[in-house]
Amino acid sequence: MLIKTINAILTVLAGVGAALVLYWVLNKLVELLPGKWEDRVKPYFYIAPAFAAIALYLIYPAIQTVVYSFANADSTAWVGLKNYSALLGSHSFRQTLFNTVLWIVVVPAATIILGLAIAVLADRLKPGSEKLAKTTIFLPMAISAVGAGTIWRFIYATNPPNEPQLGLQNAIVTGLGHDPVNWLQLNTLHFNSFELMVILLWAQVGFAMVLLSAAIKGVPTETLEAARIDGASELQIFGRVIVPQIWGTVITVFITVTIGVMKIFDIVYVMTNGNFNTNVVGVEFFNQLFTNFNNGYAAAIVVMLMLAVLPIMIYQVRHFRADEAVR
After folding, report:
1. CB-based contact 131:227 (threshold 8 Å)
2. pTM for this model (two decimals)
3. Tell me: the pLDDT tens digits for 209-223?
């Protein structure tokens, strides 16, 4: 343990030291230039390492992935659009896409609704109680997705009918006189997928609550008082006064959660590994790459995911720019 700690500290110090040396050298090189050129070139020298890192670790892998998506399983021969046609023609992959769309439809909307409700209710508490409630609800955000999945495995755990039930839900069910239910295999109407979504909601609602609560507190009290004087009910004030003024934050949280849901992997992998009709795109990519060793299929899945995320990111950037223009 001590050796690992020392190695971690040395790694951090080496990384910070290397960065300092790099920028010191760049600064010395720029200072060798004439006065005007020094002022013109210096900003580019300072941002060059960041751009180089982005190109090396983001742009190049993205281009390479697109190239591999047109190659065979071991990336030794071109197959054109065969990977895409084979994936989209597969019933199991279409079901995976449907499950992913189901996550995208349900989780972001539920996160916003629950986050707004909790933010509004928590804001009505006394300051001390409000802090305690928000801290408690935000705590799951600090847990990794793998940790959250492990915790919820104990809630959904199933033992044979004659044995004590470790899982909370089955303990309640058997306590009421019924047989235990294998929750993670209950795929009627995708019920087990909804159970997995609950885990992500448990982890993300605190994030939505914090941002939405801050936005609600930023609504001018004069506007709220004017609405009350005009005879508006609290529900009307919330729907017609508060929500329009925090709509920018609502959109931001919605898009952030949506992008996270499109890449969901950890929870499904830990809980079911995509079995029992719970598979999603992230898990399918992992299994194609590391279980089936099919580079072509895995790359094609990633490219389709990138194409799906791109319009959302473009909309988010435009939304931020429009919001800044209004301010």
Report:
1. no
2. 0.86
3. 999 999 999 888 888
Contact 159, 170 (CB under 8 A): yes
Q: At what angle do helices 191-217 and 127-138 cross, to 10 degrees?
A: 140
Amino acid at 245: Q
Residue range 265-285, pLDDT digits in tens: 999 999 999 999 999 999 999
Asked whether the beta carbons of 264 and 200 are under 8 A apart, the reply is yes
Taking a C-beta distance cutoff of 8 angstroms, is the pair 284, 93 a contact? yes
Q: What is the C-alpha separation between 84 and 153, in angstroms, rounded?
A: 35
H or E, element range at 302: helix 295-326
Residue closest to 271 by CA, chosen among 156, 106, 139: 156
Q: How far apart are CA 6 and CA 226, in angstroms?
A: 61
Question: pLDDT tens digits, residue range 193-243?
Answer: 999 999 999 999 999 999 999 999 988 888 888 888 888 888 888 888 899
